[in-house]
Amino acid sequence: MELTWNAYSRAELCAHGFTRRSLARALESGELLRVRRDRYVRTDIPAALQSAVRIGGRATCLTLLQMLGVFVFQNSRLHVHVPRGSSRLRSPGTTRAPLAPRADRAYRLHWMTLARQDEGTSTCVGVLDALIHAVICQPARYAIATLDSALHAGLIDEIDMGDIFAALPARFQVLRPLINGRAESGPETLVRLILRGLGCDIIPQVTFDGIGRVDLLVDGWLVIECDSREFHEAWEQQAKDRERDLRLAARGYATLRLTAAVIMTRPDDVIAAIRGMLTVRGVS
Known about the structure:
This is DUF559 domain-containing protein. Residues 222-277 form the DUF559 domain. InterPro entries: DUF559 (IPR007569). This protein is 43% helix and 16% strand. It has 284 residues and is an alpha/beta fold. It folds into two domains: 46-178, no CATH class; 186-283, VSR Endonuclease (Endonuclease, Chain A). The strands form three sheets. Strands 6-7-8-9 form a four-stranded mixed beta sheet, with helices on both faces. Helix 4 (61-67) crosses helix 5 (127-137) and helix 5 packs antiparallel against helix 6. The longest helix is centred in the last third of the chain and has 17 residues, at 267-283. The termini are far apart.
């Protein structure tokens, strides 16, 4: 019998071929786990999904998006969608205790009516609703980066984007023109927004013959690369990056190479560096 990353009732398990005895054996062996009354899951599903079902809802927002590889800035909390009117919510760690007050900040409950009720699984909401929740949960610049990331990954399209903003409160509509699915990373989006705030002309993902694609071309002369440790920590890759910078310089382009850590934790330093280069260019 084939079970997926869903939560099942006893009746559903019986429909999959379980008997009372085989269900007891599956629970004893660790094949299945009872996470709350009449809700069973496979023990190999992610712990966040188990906890969401144990509470009485489904994983959503930053929790689900992290699992899907979508950019979110930071998240250590469990985000759970709970239908309006739900009762008997339990602790994410044990069915023996009721859900504690939110003061511990270990979780966030989302009570909004879902835009697409029929999407997702019994352990998580659909991607579109997770993104709606993520826009509300994050500061604007990170929400834009999250939407860029989902669009670039092909998890949503422009029609979906329209549905997302149709479901969001009016105050979020100003973000819609700032979405650009060409961005290949969250840090790249954050730098693009900084540049926009500085009044720069920005072209993302520009390809130079014989050199390759760069993250951002600014005002026609400044190339900005947003490097992540994962892809740039090896010396061989660093040597290739420097060769690219050398070839760009020979064509009259300056290069500013920023790490993801600096972009996300020291934005004021990024702004100062960009302003410094723009000032020098203006003087020359």
